[in-house]
Specification:
It contains 13 helices and 19 strands. It is α/β, with parallel strands linked by helices. Helix 6 packs across helix 10.
Length: 471
Amino acid sequence: MRILLTGATGYIGKRLLPALVAEGHEVICCTRDRARFHVPAALQDHITVVELDFLDRASLAAIPTDIDAAYYLMHSMASSVDFREAELRSAVNFRETISATGAKQVIYLTGIINEAGLSDHLASRKAVEEELGRGSYHLTCLRAGIIIGSGSASFEIIRDLVEKLPVMITPVWLRTRCQPIAIRDVIAFLTKSLGAPATYDRAFDIGGPGIYTYKEMLLGYAKVRGLKRWIGIVPVMTPRLSSYWLYFVTSTSYRLATSLVDSMKVEVVCRNTELNGILGVQPIDYDTALQATLLKIEGNDVVSGWKDSFASSALTARLSGFLEVPTFGCLKDRRSKKMASPERTRERIWRIGGGTGWYAGNYLWRLRGFMDKMVGGVGLNRGRTHADTLMAGDSVDFWRVLYANKEEGRLLLFAEMKLPGEAWLEFKMEGELLWQTATFRPKGVWGRLYWYSVLPFHGIVFKGLLIKLTE
């Protein structure tokens, strides 16, 4: 079958793609930015990449008409204050475009919406479902709650909280019940629903066998990790305080934290799980899902992460728009040093940030990350998805990878921390030398004041970094 895959660079899309190819399908992958799309060589003969934006109706002409089915895996949660309007407009454009193709089925992964009172996010998901249902194809809706898997936003928040906080004073919504599901089971449901007439024009809840409160999920993670944790619940924590709590402790953005807190007050428990029997999928339990996820992390086998998606990025334009580092009106810190071992330098560059740190002046990097969090930025909590692999679009703490060519020995990063201007950091190997260039394009007087105020620390941070990378 020819399958249209939207959200191909997202957390679910990256995992669904190889599963579809393994089933023998040809996949047309949709992305807003081709530079962010990286496919293993083994899959390249089975896919076609089209660059488009479902908010831009004209760009949808790139979608071929001879498709058999499509997956709708897009959402705008936390990417815009007007995400409800954006999600609905995207759904309308998708419906009208796909209805004009030969697609017989659309599969939509959404959230569990069984409660009368829904959060803004879940209400938006329901509105999208209703809109997609007006198409000329058969719609299959799979409704999931918390997804447990390496790199998922929900799992990373659970992991951050339990790993960092031996004692937690938490909001009352930790008593809310949910029904988590393993990412491998989500992919199984998505693939097995394809071309299955019994799923046409129907909606199903998908979840694991257990129902837990969020508190029980946190304690369950602690048990699997062999950690002792104490969790107290207080009724006086407002939604805003709850959002700040998640924002400062975890790697989530404040906007995403606000959306999550809003949704976590709503129970997401399955009512209709007959799809298990229809497709022959028996979801694994929460503890087993956690153990499998932790093994993936320990083995550095994380396929995708939410932090590498558009939703966690300050870059709303294409990466290519920032690849040419400007020179006019810019301030630079450019240094070079002879490498003792080019291969060792190359490996160190490709492990920079995240758990490895920044080799020199790490306390200053952490301080800068804390200051960024205090003004609503991403801080250092995002880390990185892979320990030793970098691709364009990946996050590295408060940087975004614009260009990464390990063989060439060039890495270009763009700053996503809060700044009175724009900043780039480049590493480039030329012969026996490593060139390290920090570029800052200030906005007005405040930008220049910022640059000169941090200039005294460059000797510690940038000089020390260069020495460590080349020794």
